[in-house]
Every structure is written in C-alpha cells, then in structure tokens.
UniProtKB/TrEMBL annotation:
Source organism (scientific name): Aulographum hederae CBS 113979
Pfam families, alphabetized: Aminotran_4 (PF01063)
GO molecular function terms noted in the UniProt entry: catalytic activity
Protein name: D-aminoacid aminotransferase-like PLP-dependent enzyme
Stretches with biased composition (Polar residues): 128-142
Highest taxon, organism lineage: Eukaryota
Region (Disordered): 128-158
Length: 298
C-alpha cells in the first residue's frame, strides 16, 4: 500500500539505558542485534518500522532497516554525539527515530528518569492485594460495570509489585476514535491521540504518567494514547487485538508480553471496564507499569 501524503514520517520511540546492558532478556538475540545492547527491544522496534515502511510505501526506508547491526551502530554514534554536544554523562534517554519518505533518518533525544530493571521485563502482572473480579454488564454502553464479590479465578503468580506502588493515572476517553493504519503503525500523524488527551485530561494532568484509553465507535478498547494496555478478565490478563487498520499500535512491549506468556489477545469492550480496576500499561520508553482506572459517565 502506498500513500502519497508526504507530510508524515514513520517513527518509533525507544529507551537507551546503560542498565539494559546487564539484562539477559534485553541482550538476547531475539531482542537485540549486539551481545550487550543499551537499547530497549531494538530488534522489535526495527521490525515495527520495517513493517510500517512497507505498508506506507516508504521504499527508501527499507534498506536502511534491513541490517539491524548497522542501525544499532548508527544509533550508538548519535547517542554519543548527543552526549558530547550537550556535555552530559551517560544516562537513560528517550530516543525517537524518524524516517521520511526519502529514507533520511532523524533522531531526537530526551532525558528520562531511571527505573528499576523489573520495570523492563516483569515476571508477572499479578499485583499484591489484587481485587479484580468477574464482571456483570451494566445497562450503559459507556459506564463502569458492577463487580461481583465472589471470584475463584484470581491469578496465582507471585505478587509483583504492591498495589501501593501504582504510578499511572488512567482515564477512559469520553469520545470514540476511528481506527486506521495510523492507529496500527506508528507515524507522526497523531492528531487523534492529541485530541483524546486534550478532551479527557485536566490541563494540569497531561504528564507522562497520565494515560487515556482509546476506544472505537463499536465500543472496543484498543490501546492507550501512548501505551499498550492489559486488563484482567476471567482469570487471566488480556490485551486487545491489533488487526492492521482496525486496532491499536502493534507495540514492542506488547509483543514481548505475549511472547512471554504474561497475557493473551482478547477483545475488551468499554462495557467491561470497572471504575478503580487495575490496568497494566507499557511502552518502549518507560517499560511496564500499572495504575487504577477512572471511568467518567458521559
């Protein structure tokens, strides 16, 4: 598929962090091109950008991504140049990789706070004192469901982390979003995400740890405005499907969570969300985290 609109670029945002060099997960051949890589799941980011370049007809980008080892070497050089040019010490960065239709790669860097290693590769989505329960549909298509008191299907994994460590503030959008290739593949066409955050979050709340759940006109939750999302349903954690052009982003951390068996794909309806339920979120810069969902009736 070729789109003639040249006003957008393909991109992917990932984390550069010296801490990742010591991660066996991160340095595995399935996730990295080098034996010791400071880039978070770089191979998955390369795969995602390669798919986007093929789908959008950015043919000049394809050869720039084919050799992942060369790509990583280029990124290391640019990180070093950024650190030298700004006289900063080695530390975690958000790295935004962008390609235009001519195949020219740009990189943008933003300092990000350090996080524990477990944030990148959690062993479970179980949360201490977890209280998610079976759901009973309400009469409203947009409001929260009633939670029954009995639940024999709680997760049995070891607890990680404690409920008191929740950091994300998660809100359901007030209006639906039409899914498209731009909600499946990452491009700079992000007006729909900006609009979602603008109409849903308080002006002073649009910080990196405030997230909005996006849903389609048919009432399916597909993703967060900047994260993949995970819900506890019927005794297991699930993440919404990402059928091309009909779902949310084909996220790198989402891909890893599925491969690691932390979750399965399953549709999540707006009718099924519960006020106060725990929701896990993840992205390629901040790793994994969780928070409590706020649902506002329209």
């Amino acid at each position: 598929m070729t789109l003639q609109n040249e006003s957008f670029r393909l991109f992917s945002s990932l984390r550069y962090d010296p801490l990742l060099v010591s991660s066996q997960h991160n340095c595995s051949p399935s996730l990295s091109f080098r034996e010791k890589s400071p880039f978070y799941m770089l191979k998955y980011h390369r795969d995602r950008m390669l798919e986007a370049s093929e789908r959008f007809g950015f043919h000049n980008v394809v050869p720039k991504l084919t050799n992942g080892t060369v790509l990583e070497e280029q990124l290391i050089e640019r990180v070093n140049a950024h650190q030298s040019g700004h006289n900063i010490t080695d530390g975690p960065l958000k790295v935004r990789i962008l390609f235009n239709q001519d195949g020219i790669m740009d990189t943008e860097f933003t300092a990000v706070p350090p996080v524990p290693m477990a944030t990148f590769y959690p062993s479970t989505f179980q949360v201490d004192d977890q209280a998610n329960t079976p759901l009973e549909p309400s009469s409203s298509a947009k409001t929260a469901l009633r939670a029954e008191s009995k639940d024999s299907l709680q997760p049995t994994h070891e607890c990680f982390p404690s409920a008191s460590s929740a950091q994300w503030h998660i809100t359901l959008d007030t209006t639906s979003t039409i899914s498209s290739l731009h909600t499946s593949l990452k491009t700079t066409e992000r007006q729909h995400y900006d609009a979602s955050r603008s109409r849903t979050l308080d002006p002073g709340a649009s910080t990196p740890l405030h997230e909005v759940l996006i849903f389609t006109p048919s009432g399916l939750v597909i993703e967060g405005s900047m994260t993949s999302v995970y819900f506890f349903r019927r005794g297991r954690w699930v993440t919404p499907p990402v059928e091309l052009g009909k779902g949310g982003q084909r996220g790198t951390t989402r891909r890893w969570a599925l491969d690691a068996g932390l979750c399965v794909e399953e549709e999540v309806t707006v009718r099924s969300v519960i006020e106060g339920e725990r929701v896990w979120v993840s992205n390629g810069v901040r790793g994994f985290g969780f928070g409590f969902l706020r649902v506002e009736a329209s």
